[in-house]
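Below is how a single chain appears once it has passed through the pipeline. First comes the sequence as given, then the structure the pipeline wrote out for it. We keep one example in the README because the format questions we get most often are answered faster by looking than by reading.
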Amino acid sequence: MNAVIREQIMAVRETRETNMLDVNAVMVIANREGFYELVVYLIDNKREYAQFILTGRTSEGG
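Resulting structure:
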C-alpha cells in the first residue's frame, strides 16, 4: 500500500458515509470521488485493506 492509497482511504473515511469494512461501499465512494487507484487496489488487496482498517498496519509493517 503506497501513500496515495492511504490518503484516499482516509479521504473516504472522512466522508463518514459507510462502515470502512464495507468494501463495496468504499469502492463506490472512491469511484465517485475519482480515487481510481483505491478502487483498483481494493479489487486485489481486500485482506491487506482489512488489516489496515482494523490495526492501522499493512503487511509492509507501516
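The mean pLDDT is 94.

See the next section for the split statistics.
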